[in-house]
């Protein structure tokens, strides 16, 4: 229920404030989506354990699943620290046989797929650190539409519109990371 989400957000805000203060002091990265948190921690694991334990004592209903790694999959993103640089890309499970299936199967007009396709391209542009990763995701999205019966003209028109709208038409064919 919508009120449950609101109440849980209020509760999460209360206990995460302590965590956020510490993360801001250490100039670390923090992300939250609903009830999932993600943050970078460059201090010792003992300090992290002590911090989480103090939150657990103060708020006993809070449950943690802690995963410590130099890379993480979070909200279908692959995030890694590569020699001090944040690297991100869209993460796809390559073991699935249904890789090119659209989430809406029947009853939706082409406008719905147009909006979804554009949104997926924007997400790829925002989430991919490297141009080659964005281009790979763009090709994956194009193939998904083609495999599901959309015409090449439909796909081309929407891709062209995307690059024109963001004044990045040259980026469609260039792989130069510096540009």
Describe the structure.
The chain is α+β, with helices and mostly antiparallel strands. It has two domains: 2-68, no CATH class; 92-172, no CATH class. It is 49% helix and 13% strand. It has five helices and five strands, in the order αββαβββααα. It has helices at 2-25, 45-58, 110-127, 131-147, 152-165; strands spanning 30-33, 36-39, 71-74, 77-82, 85-90. The strands form two sheets. It has a three-stranded antiparallel beta sheet. It has a two-stranded antiparallel sheet with strand order 1-2. A hairpin with a 2-residue loop joins β4 and β5 (85-90). α3 runs antiparallel to α4 (131-147). The termini are far apart.
Short summary:
The protein has helices spanning 2-25, 45-58, 110-127, 131-147, 152-165; strands at residues 30-33, 36-39, 71-74, 77-82, 85-90.
């Amino acid at each position: 229920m919508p009120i449950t989400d609101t109440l849980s957000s209020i509760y999460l805000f209360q206990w995460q404030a302590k965590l956020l203060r510490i993360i801001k002091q250490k100039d670390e990265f923090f992300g939250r989506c609903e009830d999932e948190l993600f943050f970078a921690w460059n201090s010792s694991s003992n300090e992290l354990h002590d911090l989480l334990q103090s939150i657990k004592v103060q708020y006993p209903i809070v449950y943690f699943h802690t995963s410590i790694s130099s890379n993480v999959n979070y909200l279908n993103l692959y995030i890694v620290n590569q020699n001090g640089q944040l690297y991100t890309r869209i993460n796809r499970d390559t073991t699935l046989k249904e890789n090119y299936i659209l989430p809406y199967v029947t009853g939706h007009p082409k406008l719905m797929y147009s909006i979804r396709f554009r949104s997926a391209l924007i997400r790829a542009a925002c989430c991919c650190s490297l141009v080659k990763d964005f281009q790979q995701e763009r090709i994956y999205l194009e193939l998904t539409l083609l495999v599901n019966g959309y015409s090449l003209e439909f796909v081309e028109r929407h891709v062209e519109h995307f690059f024109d709208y963001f004044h990045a038409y040259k980026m469609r064919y260039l792989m130069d990371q510096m540009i």
